[in-house]
């Protein structure tokens, strides 16, 4: 059965070193890698000061980097034809467009937070599927941030990683123009292998806690299905949901929907705004419920939380699509204990917790259902929760 391969870190780093030497006339000083992520539960809750529970993927973006003495910045990618060239003093909001903005934005934001970032040559390459709701953008940002640490000789301890996450979040919202909430960068920089990461966005330091999954003990596999329906967070849907949530909090007179109770939502006159707020308030509770159920090994409760989460995103938050709905229902029919769409929505991926001996049947059932519905072929990832961004070699 063919799953999207994460690739071997040492081999991928070598490929990148060779390509870097050809592109820039010399080997890179450092190679860093940063993982994509898949969120178990807690969708669109991060920018509402809520809870999220993502895991880092073994699929990652790799960034090779060397410092320069002339302030020039060159950013290339093995996946893109056009390299971007500029200077480190002239980076900032409005100065860079397209994919390179995610990398250049990090150089700018790290400078803004006090790091003495020089001109650099950068070459990136990755195995996180692009536009699949699996945080290829955050992986790119975090790999560049870690490579800069390598170039500057800064030890990426937990405090530094927190600063880097803040810089990557700024890069994405202010330079790349995607007003996202911070989950993706935080998990890419702070995840522990084998665990999910509970992040509390109400805490000023976005406090994080490792949550053991125990999938092996339960003979379950984490199956990710990329519907190949492209999602883009710079499109209007994500920002519109965020604006609806802010409108709900303002109408309720609370600083964020984290402070709103379910009962209080009856006071919202606008029906759409009320449904948006209901998704957020109930979704935050479902994250706590899932953490409790994981500790108790109560997979039936987790399955219910996943099911309710999907319905809430489909009907109240309106960010699902027919392909995601089909992947979720088919996975459950094929024996998954729980399934839901994951990530920003409007396309992208679903997740399913599937008994190990039923994974192949579930994949076949989803593929067949997509053919029968006339949808394009999806692709699948089988995920063991991976560790956070680091230097390679
Ligand atoms: C995207 C954003 C995150 C988060 C999710 C939805 O991945 O980058 O900040 O809001 O969507 O949960």
List the helices and strands and how they pair.
Blueprint lengths: L8 H16 L5 E10 L11 E2 L1 E15 L3 E6 L6 E4 L12 H13 L6 E8 L9 H17 L5 H18 L7 H8 L4 E6 L7 E5 L7 E7 L9 H17 L18 H26 L2 H18 L5 H12 L4 E5 L6 E7 L3 H15 L5 E5 L6 E2 L2
The structure holds alpha-D-galactopyranose (GLA).
Alpha-D-galactopyranose binds next to α5.
Structural write-up:
This protein has helices at 9-24, 100-112, 136-152, 158-175, 183-190, 236-252, 271-296, 299-316, 322-333, 359-373, and strands spanning 30-39, 51-52, 54-68, 72-77, 84-87, 119-126, 195-200, 208-212, 220-226, 338-342, 349-355, 379-383, 390-391. The model has no long low-confidence stretch (mean pLDDT 96). It folds into two domains: 9-211, Ribosomal Protein S5, domain 2; 212-383, Alpha-Beta Plaits (2-Layer Sandwich), CATH 3.30.70. The protein contains ten helices and 13 strands. The protein binds alpha-D-galactopyranose. Residues 39, 43-44, 46-47, 135, 180-184, 233, 343-344 line the site of alpha-D-galactopyranose.
């Amino acid at each position: 059965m063919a799953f999207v391969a994460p690739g071997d870190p040492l081999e991928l780093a070598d490929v990148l070193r060779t390509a870097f030497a050809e592109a820039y006339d010399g080997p890179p000083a450092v190679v860093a890698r940063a993982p994509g992520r898949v969120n178990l539960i807690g969708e669109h809750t991060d920018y509402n000061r809520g809870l999220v529970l993502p895991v880092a993927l073994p699929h990652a973006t790799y960034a090779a980097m060397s410092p320069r003495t002339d302030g020039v910045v060159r950013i290339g990618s093995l996946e893109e034809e056009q390299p971007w060239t500029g200077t480190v003093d002239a980076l900032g909001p409005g100065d860079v467009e397209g994919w390179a903005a995610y990398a250049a934005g990090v150089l700018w934001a790290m400078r803004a937070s006090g790091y003495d970032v020089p001109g650099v040559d950068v070459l990136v390459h990755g195995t996180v599927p692009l536009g699949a709701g699996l945080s290829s953008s955050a992986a790119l940002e975090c790999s560049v941030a870690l490579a800069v640490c390598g170039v500057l000789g800064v030890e990426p301890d937990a405090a530094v990683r927190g600063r880097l996450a803040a810089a990557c979040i700024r890069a994405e919202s202010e330079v790349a123009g995607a007003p996202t909430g911070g989950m993706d960068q935080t998990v890419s920089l702070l995840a522990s292998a084998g665990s999910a990461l509970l992040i509390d966005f109400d805490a000023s330091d976005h406090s994080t806690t490792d949550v053991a999954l125990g999938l092996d003990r339960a003979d379950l596999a984490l199956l990710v299905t990329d519907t190949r329906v492209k999602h883009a967070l710079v499109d209007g849907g994500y920002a519109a949901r965020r604006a609806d949530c802010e409108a709900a909090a303002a109408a309720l007179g609370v600083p964020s929907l984290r402070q709103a109770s379910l009962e209080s939502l009856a006071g919202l006159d606008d029906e759409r705004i009320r449904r948006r707020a209901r998704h957020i308030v109930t979704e935050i509770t479902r994250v706590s419920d899932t953490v409790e159920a994981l500790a108790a090994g109560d997979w039936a409760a987790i399955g219910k939380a996943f099911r309710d989460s999907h319905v809430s995103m489909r009907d109240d938050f309106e960010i699902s699509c027919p392909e995601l709905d089909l992947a979720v229902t088919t996975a459950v029919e094929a024996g998954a204990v729980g399934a839901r769409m994951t990530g920003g929505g409007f396309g992208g991926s679903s997740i399913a917790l599937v008994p190990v001996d039923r994974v192949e049947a579930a994949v076949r059932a989803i593929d067949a259902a997509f053919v029968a519905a006339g949808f394009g072929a999806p692709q699948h990832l089988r995920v063991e929760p991976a560790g956070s961004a680091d230097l390679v070699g």
